Amino acid sequence: MALDKQNTRPAYLLGRLLAILQRTRLNADSITSKHTEILYTGLTSDDIEQVMTDPAREIHRYLLQAYEDIQTGAKYEWGLTLDRMLTEVVTQLVGFPETLYEECKSLCWIAYYHQKASFPAEMARIMDEINALPDPSPAPPAKMPSVN
User: Fold this and answer.
1) Cα–Cα distance measured from residue 14 to residue 100, given in angstroms and rounded to the nearest whole number
2) Residue 19, burial from CB neighbour count under 10 angstroms (0-12, 13-18, 19+)
């Protein structure tokens, strides 16, 4: 089964969101580790389980970190594409549940792996969309006529 972008169940969206947050963290850490020789692992399974247990309370710090990571990656393609993916998912969320029941946690994990598996195709699709946009740089100013 593939990524279901039409699925707006909170548990499914949360799983997609967690996969995007992890990918954002890993990409930012790969840049940081080149300078500090420290390699992080992004979100661990314990981090993900903690967010699933209390999404309303735990997700904010990961979203804040993702914002900072995307700023780090803004000059790279991954920064643009992951920002777009994150926006696509977050705009479908109405809020975060207080907790996820066990069957919802399973759906969350399924969505997490669906999103992870779709990264190459999704990133290519988004880059195609970005590249198809008109050039945002302003046209050179028109030459002013000389006044004599």
Assistant:
1) 10
2) buried
